[in-house]
Amino acid sequence: MKKLLVLATFLIFASCNNKESSSKDYKDASLSIEDRVEALLPKLSLEEKVAQMRIFHANIGVKHDENGKLKLSDKVVEKLKLGIAGIKNPGEHIDAVAAAKLNNELQKYIIENNRWGIPALFVTESYNGVDAEGCTKFGRPMTSAASFNPELVRRQWDVVGREARLRGMHMCHSPEADIVRDPRFGRMSEAFGEDTYLTTQMVKNAIIGVQGDYEGLGNGTHIGAVAKHFAGYGQVLGGSNFAAIEISERTLIDEIYPPFEAAVKEAKTLGIMASHGDLNGVASHGNPELLTGVLRDQWGFEGYVVSDSNDIARLFYFMNVAESPEAAAQMGLEAGIDIDLYAEDSYAYLPKMVKKNPELEKLIDRSVRRVLRTKFILGLFDNPYINIEDVEKGNRAASSLELAKESDLESIILLKNEDKILPLSKDKSLKVALLGPLLKDNTKEMFESVSGSNIKFIAEKGFQLTNQKGGAPKLLDRDPKAIASMVNKARSADVSILFLGGDKFTSKEAYFSNSTLGDRATLDPVGPQDELIEKIKALGKPVIVVLKHRRTLSINTIAEEADAILDTWDLSEFGDESTARIIFGEVSPSGKSPVTIPRSIGQIPFHYSMKEINYKKEYLFLGQGPLYPFGHGLSYGDFEYSDISISNAEITPGTELEVSVKVTNKGNVKAKEVVQMYLKDEIGSVTRPDKELKAFEKIELNAGENKTVSFKITPKMLEFTGITMEKVLETGDYTVMLGTSSKDYLETTFKLKK
Question: What is the DSSP pairing of strand 720-721 with strand 727-728?
């Protein structure tokens, strides 16, 4: 009887609560977001709810006519009758002002043509800045990671957030929080590197930046982030997109999850995207333990989870873990996927499925709440349109373009500088040959804008790496005439600068279609690039290599033959100008490699923080270690590390230590240096990493100046997942390393006692 009374009381309370919510006006901006969501949700029909769980791509029929007016296909008109969660990339191929006008018209149409005036989320991505025409083009995330400057990354993504919102966008399917450790993977440069701590700092700051420290969302100045791909996507087997993912539970917890956890808890990301793949046999899009258990129950995530492209439906027709398309939709819904991206054969089935299983509507309501909540957070019900005058003033602002250049200068890595060949002097007459397949049409112009009148340039691209066609580009036949012509150019010059590496055709996303490839089975530079540098080096003149690429390459010949190597990854639209400024000594390079650079693909997996036992043996007929270690990057300064000290020889679970080192610039130019702190657990109950990056600081020192750099060592830094799969803090000996890379440092020790 008591149970019945309690149940009756609960039902009466719930009924009163629902009546109270339904009596409120969801358009009332004075209400809390939760109240507005609860006021709106009961009004929606089942079909309208499901519409708030779907995103389609603008390429199915959202464009402008010859007069710049909105033009919708019949398919889009039909979809928008019920409203929609969002639309991907509307206006991506037109300039910012035209896009803002188009998106204002589109939003107005959507609001006026669904019963409740629910606005849509317009969604973009960001790999080199906003993925749309006419925006500031920054370097890719991997390039930014090389800066080892999280504050710089925050400012860069602040511009991304502002420029996207000015176009009328609201969400960004970026940044990537994946750890990437396999250079065969074509999407490598979309992420922030191989290291957990570095990636965590970069992802956290990217999200804070793009969301305007969260305040910019409701103010209408920034967009929401969707951190992706949860989880482990960057480590597909064989580096092949859509392949299986096998990562131990311990590695997941200690190395893969932290960037996502920081995205949720510290940066307050509005969205999370699930991973294409499975995770140790469980398809990520049908994994409630991952998408609800870890993400929501453990971390408290309140935003929405969106599928990757068509991946809920693929639980049936690709992953083979669902018996039917309807079963796939139910798996995704139960796992915690709130929005279905693109598919027509997945969540579209939900209204019919609810008729057979009414309990599903509770899960639908759960997802719709999250989507509506996001739209209220972004202020779209109250201020859905863009002020066109703001677009004209704010897009590609002078400060944004200068930031792109600043980001370049801090991200370029000097891998090698034999006999200090760099920087080149502007004061001496010099003839410089700019050569190679990664030369751009405006490279010579950009170099001339930096170098002054004493330097004369000749330039020749010579050959392309591929035919640059289709989803699966083909390598071109060796062109002996092109090589001979470039060698002749080099013969007439005092110094040659070779632009080598790879491009967007040799490293790219491998889409689901079998005709679209992007991953590689080797890491060697494609085409006759090694032959080119060998022949030019044989002339006996200095050779400088500017390495451009989107995946790590095994540059053995380049590393041996070049006098200097500048690793630029994929810089901004001003990349060659920035590179010239480094080459001619206007700025000292200060980038550090965010990945380990291997000698051979046969060394993979090969990241600096592997377990210590992985380093027991080298390979036959191969040099020792990597070509260049994680964290490596030279300078025009000459940094000396000395006087390492630690505040105490012991730490306890309730105390902290401070470790410091003196850094002196013994060179004759002002330069920046990244001081890196690594920790090593000497004895663990499970096999432990060789070392782990736990802190870093970028400093700038004048010639002759010194600075003592200090870091805190906290008990949290020493935690790891033990034998029982619980986080443990184990007593024993630890080594702390302070230095310029993961291989060049000073060290001291301490003990953890309880």
Answer: antiparallel
The three-state DSSP-derived secondary structure of 41-80 is HHHCCHHHHHHCCEEEEHHHCEEECCCCCEEECHHHHHHH
Q: Where in the chain is the domain with CATH 2.60.40.10?
A: 639-752
pTM (global) more than 0.90: yes
DSSP H/E element including 495: strand 495-501
CA–CA distance, 349 with 18 (Å, rounded to integer): 28
Residue 748's DSSP bridge partners are 736
Output the CATH code of domain 639-752.
2.60.40.10
Q: What is the DSSP string of 361-414?
A: HHHHHHHHHHHHHHHHHTTTTT--S--HHHHHHHTT-HHHHHHHHHHHHHH-EE
* CATH annotation of 46-398: 3.20.20.300
Which helix H or strand E contains 100, and what residues bound it? helix 96-112
Please list, in sequence order, all residues whose beta carbon lies within 8 angstroms of the beta carbon of residue 53, skipping any fewer than 6 positions away. 85, 338, 339, 340, 347, 350, 364, 367, 368, 371
Determine contact, residues 301/264, Cβ cutoff 8 Å: yes
Q: What is the pLDDT of residues 632-651, one digit of tens each?
A: 999 999 999 999 999 999 99
Topology, domain 412-607:
Rossmann fold (3.40.50)
For 444-497, the pLDDT digits (tens) are: 999 999 999 999 999 999 999 999 987 899 999 999 999 999 999 999 999 999
Q: Where in the chain is the domain with CATH 3.20.20.300?
A: 46-398
